[in-house]
Amino acid sequence: MSMIDVTAKPEVYREAKAKGAIKLKPETIRLIREGKVEKGDPFHVAKVAGILAAKNTSSLIPLCHPLPLTNVEVNLHIVDDSTVEVETTVKTRAQTGVEMEALVAATVALLTVWDMTKQYEKDKRGQYPHTVIQDIRVVRKLKEEGR
């Protein structure tokens, strides 16, 4: 087991975009819309958490190269009465891509929304049958030499 050797690869512009979603109860979505989540604005905190996660990906994924990220964007929005979607974009000039950083940013952003809203998601048995984090995926990968 070892990291992939990228020593001979040139540094080039790289970008990756990832998306994902979290399903919540309509009542929870309403609280987010109205700014009434007790812990604060879950979207604001999730953005910061996603950026921090992207920057720390190599500490979380054992064989992932540490990369000098030049930009991380995390955007969240309500899709419908039960879905929040996240989209992350990560950029660098490096010898390897930033797909893992984009995926980790999306995942941690959604986990942060979950953490900030879970108190509203419990059913009468103390379970969370409505809450699902789903569809986390890379939607774009870009590599441009000479940029």
Overall geometry comes to elongated
Q: Which strand order do you get reading across the main beta sheet? A: 2-3-1-4
Mean pLDDT rating: 95
Instruction: Examine the coordinates and then state which fold CATH places here, giving the name of the CATH topology.
Output: Alpha-Beta Plaits
- Would you state the CATH class? Alpha Beta
Q: What helical percentage do the residues reach? A: 25-40%
Query: What's the structural domain tally?
Result: 1
Q: How many H/I helical runs?
A: 4
CATH superfamily, please?
Molybdopterin cofactor biosynthesis C (MoaC) domain
| Unreliable segments of 5+ consecutive residues | none
Radius of gyration from CA coordinates: 17 Å
Order of helices and strands: EHHHEEHE
Which structural class do you get from the secondary structure elements? Answer: alpha+beta
Portion in strands? 25-35%
The main pleated sheet reads as: 4 strands, antiparallel
> At CATH's second level, what is the architecture?
2-Layer Sandwich
Q: What's the N-to-C terminus distance?
A: 33 Å
What's the count of strands? 4
